[in-house]
């Protein structure tokens, strides 16, 4: 009985109930709240009617799934469509092979689990675990895998695999056609070049690795750090040193690193081995900006426990810039941060290569069809399958092996031309396989800071709430500073600190408005103290020189001082305080010294530093004034982070908005006075939190947050990041070329919007739609509806709102955003940038380009079809990871409009002409075989076939890489011409079909002409038809060329000369073939007038109609560029 119960109605009822529950839960979450039961139905209906203004996949199926996997539905449906044989044919076999290979690799290279470790100082025998060998290995292959690996990389392409099968078939006697070298010589040449190139690259990598791995280290001074270490001791008296991290994170600024205080205090170096101490380090991980560990010394009373953080580490691949350091190794080899963060970038394949691969497959199908037709016309007599295979071999030239060689040589030529272009000096082509991509771009993703802007910060504005100072009134601030410090100095005999009067006023009567002079004094002092900047004196012979002289003015000479910091904003602020009279002259781990306008040195002891992170968006410092012993907590940060920390005010939000509209980067500065008791209480809780091994970051943040309450707002600063040279005309040119530009930045919304306007990324006439912050699906739905009603407006969206939209409405959002003329995504993380690039590739199928200059742009650059890195102030990491490296953003215009256009047009012409060259000779073979009773006998043998694709026609055909349809000046003046390229009309099935028809026409004329005109001298048909074929090819190259270059003329005559010279030497080949008739060429016959006029007649008939057609096409339907050039 139970067997007959239908289960599906029960399931659908349950599903319906679940769907209703989820729908109700969703609408409640969307802001409806738990209304009365009676009205809930009507509320739902009303809300759904409102939401349905834009159908965003609100199907039953959608509600049955969890919200978390909601966005995967469309893809899941697509995946379910193909199954069985169709799936296997449409790429399933490739998927299966890849999966098997991945599984084998995973089994062979199974990674061991990463664990935390305890490292004892000077006692390696106490270490229980084995750690990886500290060796760098950048090689792709080893001795055993080199040949198989290189061959696999080559034969995974259809073209090369096809020729391998054809060449191998010649070892079978029944299938042999002609000579072995006619098949193996071209294939062997291609493979030899590839293997040699890979071998040279591999040997260079091996030599670099060997040189790096054979270095011996004892003390590290101005050397690359070989492994991840904890910093124990330095020769610098301050107990700190600088390191350069440009090879790790792409930043050029020096970073300050601090030695473990317990080991730095040891009297002698040898004591490191006599103490009983160990380092506990967390398990290896990817994050280069964080570290948690502890240092413990057990032989002291009581035992010393010291927390270790990122400032106590020296990561591998960084360089010690000052002094000598000694450390204990904690991670080696594969477990170092630099190796773990090295991802293998994907091998980029150009769209043109993919299109040619498709055409190659079409030619393969044509080859099979033609061979089958020949066997069918034979009547399937005898061993027909053997005849079928022989015909496949006879017509194998339909797919030319020289296609890959010509295109690769062409790409190398384009790369050479780009690097030699004097208009874009310093440009480097790092990926030589995709120059044609530069001519096919539709979306361009660009970073803001350092890419569109110069990353050169200039202090522009100081706002105190009631009064604002700009560049023209900075001298007033200087006068106030001089006045306030001269008053302070006169009061110095009474032991009053510079900040005592305002402090008293604040403590006794906080509501009394202080004088403008004292407020400026406090603000400038706060900016001069609250930072991570270190002054460096270049002319010092000793590394520690600048910290040895604390009180002598002449040692801090201004002309020798430069500032080092991890942020250019901070350097700009400190340089500004110097310009108004308060100069930072010295800094070490524990103290900071400022010089007043009168030359007095003020010393402050640094008690705590809370560094800036992308999460907290603020940095703080606690200092003690040496002269007064007063403790002050200073903090500066972004307005979004600081607005909740400072005391109530009515001007901050408005002024931040005003400055952002001017394109200024804003920082809010605040302070808080602490008593000795308050600070001691804070310090004990802070030290305890730093020593905890679990949730350390959360505990530390909670303790610091207890200090960040009711802070006094001092001022608002505005720093300008100036635009790069010619950014506006370049963006204008790209927009006119039909390229849609998206700006992806980590900066805040107001600044990003302002730079978008000032750089003309958004034109003056366009509206801007600022996408409101959304946190759930309902809000995202309503906001997308509002955005959908806007037309021709730029979109500005924050990273967190973007995340919500992509979670629920990925397809709809991308579809709407792609219709915008410009998109600005602010507050984007590096992974979000790469994700946006991949989304555009998936949803539009168009070619994308990413432009950036910093380490945070690398993932975006590697994800894009074409990555362009700018060699900028943020280091070379983006430049090294990119496919093309440039020195300025304005060079993108010429790179795309001129070189992108030429590369694509030339490769399209070259590829199709090489195919035409193979098709025409295959057509002649087909005609020849059909005349001689469908015999599978080759028309041309041996060297003729090799020479045809090489010395007779190679130079003229390859000279097409010098052709250009418009002059560079015209391409730059009329960027609208670029739009035609993105449509892919230069290489399509339509143009390919035209070339196929031309090949069939010419091949037929040449063969039939030779047979008809030379009936009496039938034995010379090979010589006649081959001569006409060579002449036809040379004339067709001339027909294809649009702009002549002197090298093209040389190539034409050189090839003709080579052919005529070879007639005398290769006469044995110019019979119909010794296999069939045993006839040989009569040299005297070639010199007769009869031979010459008949060859000329055949050539004219094959070429003249095409010249006439080309002339008529140019007259009746000229291309768009010809109207401009005329």
TrEMBL record:
<keyword id="KW-0547">Nucleotide-binding</keyword>
<feature type="binding site">
    <location>
        <position position="827"/>
    </location>
    <ligand>
        <name>ATP</name>
    </ligand>
</feature>
<feature type="binding site">
    <location>
        <position position="857"/>
    </location>
    <ligand>
        <name>Mg(2+)</name>
    </ligand>
</feature>
<feature type="domain" description="P-type ATPase N-terminal">
    <location>
        <begin position="128"/>
        <end position="184"/>
    </location>
</feature>
<keyword id="KW-0333">Golgi apparatus</keyword>
<dbReference type="GO" id="GO:0005802">
    <property type="term" value="C:trans-Golgi network"/>
</dbReference>
<dbReference type="GO" id="GO:0140326">
    <property type="term" value="F:ATPase-coupled intramembrane lipid transporter activity"/>
</dbReference>
<dbReference type="GO" id="GO:0045332">
    <property type="term" value="P:phospholipid translocation"/>
</dbReference>
<feature type="binding site">
    <location>
        <position position="447"/>
    </location>
    <ligand>
        <name>Mg(2+)</name>
    </ligand>
</feature>
<dbReference type="GO" id="GO:0016887">
    <property type="term" value="F:ATP hydrolysis activity"/>
</dbReference>
<keyword id="KW-0812">Transmembrane</keyword>
<feature type="binding site">
    <location>
        <position position="747"/>
    </location>
    <ligand>
        <name>ATP</name>
    </ligand>
</feature>
<feature type="transmembrane region" description="Helical">
    <location>
        <begin position="914"/>
        <end position="936"/>
    </location>
</feature>
<dbReference type="InterPro" id="IPR023298">
    <property type="entry name" value="ATPase_P-typ_TM_dom_sf"/>
</dbReference>
<dbReference type="InterPro" id="IPR018303">
    <property type="entry name" value="ATPase_P-typ_P_site"/>
</dbReference>
<feature type="transmembrane region" description="Helical">
    <location>
        <begin position="1046"/>
        <end position="1065"/>
    </location>
</feature>
<feature type="binding site">
    <location>
        <position position="833"/>
    </location>
    <ligand>
        <name>ATP</name>
    </ligand>
</feature>
<feature type="transmembrane region" description="Helical">
    <location>
        <begin position="1085"/>
        <end position="1109"/>
    </location>
</feature>
<dbReference type="InterPro" id="IPR023214">
    <property type="entry name" value="HAD_sf"/>
</dbReference>
<feature type="transmembrane region" description="Helical">
    <location>
        <begin position="1018"/>
        <end position="1039"/>
    </location>
</feature>
<feature type="transmembrane region" description="Helical">
    <location>
        <begin position="388"/>
        <end position="407"/>
    </location>
</feature>
<keyword id="KW-0067">ATP-binding</keyword>
<dbReference type="InterPro" id="IPR006539">
    <property type="entry name" value="P-type_ATPase_IV"/>
</dbReference>
<feature type="compositionally biased region" description="Polar residues">
    <location>
        <begin position="485"/>
        <end position="509"/>
    </location>
</feature>
<feature type="region of interest" description="Disordered">
    <location>
        <begin position="485"/>
        <end position="515"/>
    </location>
</feature>
<protein>
    <recommendedName>
        <fullName>Phospholipid-transporting ATPase</fullName>
        <ecNumber>7.6.2.1</ecNumber>
    </recommendedName>
</protein>
<feature type="binding site">
    <location>
        <position position="857"/>
    </location>
    <ligand>
        <name>ATP</name>
    </ligand>
</feature>
<keyword id="KW-0445">Lipid transport</keyword>
<feature type="domain" description="P-type ATPase C-terminal">
    <location>
        <begin position="880"/>
        <end position="1118"/>
    </location>
</feature>
<feature type="transmembrane region" description="Helical">
    <location>
        <begin position="992"/>
        <end position="1012"/>
    </location>
</feature>
<comment type="similarity">
    <text>Belongs to the cation transport ATPase (P-type) (TC 3.A.3) family. Type IV subfamily.</text>
</comment>
<dbReference type="InterPro" id="IPR032630">
    <property type="entry name" value="P_typ_ATPase_c"/>
</dbReference>
<feature type="binding site">
    <location>
        <position position="853"/>
    </location>
    <ligand>
        <name>Mg(2+)</name>
    </ligand>
</feature>
<keyword id="KW-0479">Metal-binding</keyword>
<feature type="binding site">
    <location>
        <position position="612"/>
    </location>
    <ligand>
        <name>ATP</name>
    </ligand>
</feature>
<feature type="binding site">
    <location>
        <position position="447"/>
    </location>
    <ligand>
        <name>ATP</name>
    </ligand>
</feature>
<feature type="binding site">
    <location>
        <position position="746"/>
    </location>
    <ligand>
        <name>ATP</name>
    </ligand>
</feature>
<feature type="binding site">
    <location>
        <position position="636"/>
    </location>
    <ligand>
        <name>ATP</name>
    </ligand>
</feature>
<feature type="binding site">
    <location>
        <position position="665"/>
    </location>
    <ligand>
        <name>ATP</name>
    </ligand>
</feature>
<dbReference type="InterPro" id="IPR032631">
    <property type="entry name" value="P-type_ATPase_N"/>
</dbReference>
<feature type="binding site">
    <location>
        <position position="449"/>
    </location>
    <ligand>
        <name>Mg(2+)</name>
    </ligand>
</feature>
<keyword id="KW-1133">Transmembrane helix</keyword>
């Amino acid at each position: 009985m139970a067997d007959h119960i239908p289960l599906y109605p029960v399931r659908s009822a349950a599903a319906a109930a679940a769907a209703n529950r989820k729908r109700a839960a969703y609408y409640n979450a969307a802001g409806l709240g738990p209304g009365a039961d009676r009205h809930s139905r009507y509320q739902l209906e009303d809300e759904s009617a409102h939401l349905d203004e834009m159908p965003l996949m609100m199907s039953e199926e959608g509600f049955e799934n969890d919200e978390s996997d909601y966005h995967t539905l469309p893809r899941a449906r697509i995946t379910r469509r193909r199954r069985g044989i169709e799936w296997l044919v449409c790429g399933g076999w490739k998927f299966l092979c890849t999966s098997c290979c991945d599984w084998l690799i995973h089994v062979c290279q199974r990674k061991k689990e990463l664990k935390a470790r305890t490292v004892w100082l000077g006692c390696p025998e106490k270490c229980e675990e084995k750690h990886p060998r500290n060796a760098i290995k950048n090689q792709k292959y080893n001795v055993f895998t080199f040949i198989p690996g290189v061959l696999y990389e080559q034969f995974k392409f259809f073209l090369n695999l096809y020729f391998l099968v054809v060449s191998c078939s010649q070892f079978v006697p029944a299938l042999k056609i002609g000579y072995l070298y006619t098949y193996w010589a071209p294939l062997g040449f291609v493979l030899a070049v590839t293997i040699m190139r890979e071998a040279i690259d591999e040997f260079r990598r091996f030599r670099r690795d060997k040189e790096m791995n054979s270095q011996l280290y004892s003390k590290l001074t101005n050397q690359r750090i070989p492994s991840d270490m904890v910093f124990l001791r330095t020769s610098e008296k301050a107990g700190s040193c600088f390191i350069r991290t440009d090879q790790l994170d792409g930043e050029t600024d020096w970073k300050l690193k601090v030695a473990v205080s317990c080991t730095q205090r040891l009297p002698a170096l040898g004591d490191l081995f006599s103490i009983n101490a160990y380092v506990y380090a967390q398990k290896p991980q990817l994050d280069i900006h964080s570290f948690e560990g502890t240092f413990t010394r057990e032989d002291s009373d009581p035992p010393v426990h010291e927390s270790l953080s990122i400032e106590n580490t020296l990561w591998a691949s960084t360089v010690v810039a000052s002094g000598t350091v000694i450390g204990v190794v904690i991670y080696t080899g594969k477990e170092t941060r630099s190796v773990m963060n090295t991802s293998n970038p994907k091998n980029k394949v150009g769209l043109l290569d993919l299109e040619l691969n498709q055409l190659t497959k079409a030619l393969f199908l044509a080859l099979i069809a033609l061979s089958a037709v020949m066997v069918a016309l034979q009547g399937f007599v005898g061993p027909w399958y053997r005849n079928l295979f022989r015909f496949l071999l006879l017509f194998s030239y339909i797919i030319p092996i020289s296609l890959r060689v010509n295109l690769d040589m062409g790409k190398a030529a384009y790369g050479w031309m780009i690097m030699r272009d004097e208009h874009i000096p310093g440009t480097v082509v790092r990926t030589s396989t995709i120059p044609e991509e530069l001519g096919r771009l539709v979306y361009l993703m660009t970073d803001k800071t350092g890419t569109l802007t110069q990353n050169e910060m200039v202090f522009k504005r100081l706002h105190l709430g009631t009064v604002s100072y700009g560049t023209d009134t900075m001298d007033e601030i200087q006068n106030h500073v001089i006045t306030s410090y001269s008053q302070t100095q006169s009061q110095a005999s009474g032991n009053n600190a510079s900040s005592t009067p305002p402090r008293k006023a604040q403590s006794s009567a906080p509501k009394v408005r202080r004088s403008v002079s004292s407020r400026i004094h406090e603000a400038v002092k706060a900016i001069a103290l609250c930072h991570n900047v270190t002054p460096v004196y270049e002319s010092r012979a000793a590394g520690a020189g600048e910290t040895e002289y604390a009180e002598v003015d002449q040692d801090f000479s201004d002309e020798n001082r430069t500032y080092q910091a991890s942020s250019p904003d901070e350097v700009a602020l400190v340089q500004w305080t110097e310009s108004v009279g308060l100069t930072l002259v010295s800094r070490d781990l524990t103290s900071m010294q400022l010089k007043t306008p009168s030359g007095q040195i003020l010393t402050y002891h640094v008690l705590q530093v809370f560094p800036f992170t992308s999460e907290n968006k603020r940095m703080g410092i606690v200092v003690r004034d040496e002269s007064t012993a007063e403790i002050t907590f200073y903090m500066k940060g972004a307005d979004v982070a600081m607005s909740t920390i400072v005391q109530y005010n009515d001007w901050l939000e408005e002024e931040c908005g005003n400055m952002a509209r001017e394109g200024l980067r804003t920082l809010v500065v605040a302070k808080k006075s602490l008593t000795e008791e308050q600070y001691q209480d804070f310090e004990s809780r802070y030290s305890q939190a730093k020593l905890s091994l679990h949730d350390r970051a959360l505990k530390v943040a909670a303790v610091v947050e207890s200090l960040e309450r009711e802070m006094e707002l001092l001022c608002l600063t505005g720093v300008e990041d100036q635009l790069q040279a010619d950014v506006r005309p370049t963006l204008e040119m790209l927009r006119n070329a039909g390229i849609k530009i998206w700006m992806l930045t980590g900066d805040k919304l107001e600044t990003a919007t302002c730079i978008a306007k000032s750089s003309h990324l958004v034109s003056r006439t366009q509206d801007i739609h600022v996408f409101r912050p959304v946190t759930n699906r309902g809000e995202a739905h309503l906001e997308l509806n509002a955005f959908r009603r806007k037309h021709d407006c730029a979109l500005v969206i924050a990273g967190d709102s973007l995340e919500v939209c992509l979670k629920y409405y990925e397809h709809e959002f991308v579809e709407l955003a792609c219709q915008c003329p410009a998109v600005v995504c602010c507050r984007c993380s590096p992974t979000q940038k790469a994700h946006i690039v991949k989304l555009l590739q998936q949803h539009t199928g168009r070619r994308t380009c990413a432009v950036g200059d910093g380490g945070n742009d690398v993932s975006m650059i590697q994800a894009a079809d074409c990555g362009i890195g700018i060699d900028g102030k943020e280091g070379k990491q983006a430049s090294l990871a990119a496919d093309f490296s440039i020195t300025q953003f304005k060079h993108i215009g010429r790179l795309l409009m001129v070189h992108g256009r030429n590369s694509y047009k030339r490769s399209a012409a070259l590829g199709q002409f090489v195919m035409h060259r193979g098709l025409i000779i295959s057509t002649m073979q087909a005609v020849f075989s059909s005349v001689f009773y469908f015999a599978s006998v080759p028309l041309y043998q041996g060297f003729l076939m090799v020479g045809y694709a090489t010395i007779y026609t190679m130079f003229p055909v390859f000279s097409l890489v010098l052709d250009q349809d418009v002059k560079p000046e015209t391409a730059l003046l009329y960027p609208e011409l670029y739009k035609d390229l993105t449509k892919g009309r230069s290489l399509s099935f339509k143009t390919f079909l035209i070339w196929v028809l031309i090949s069939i026409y010419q091949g037929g004329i040449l063969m039939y002409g030779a047979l008809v005109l030379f009936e009496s001298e039938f034995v010379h048909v090979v010589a006649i038809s081959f001569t006409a074929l060579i002449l036809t090819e040379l004339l067709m190259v001339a027909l294809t060329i649009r702009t002549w270059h002197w090298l093209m003329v040389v190539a034409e005559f050189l090839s003709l000369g080579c052919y005529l010279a070879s007639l005398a030497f290769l006469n044995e080949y110019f019979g119909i073939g010794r296999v069939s008739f045993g006839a040989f060429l009569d040299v005297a016959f070639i010199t007769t007038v009869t031979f010459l006029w008949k060859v000329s007649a055949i050539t004219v008939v094959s070429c003249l109609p095409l010249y006439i057609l080309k002339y008529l096409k140019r007259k009746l339907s000229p291309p768009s560029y010809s109207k401009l050039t005329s």
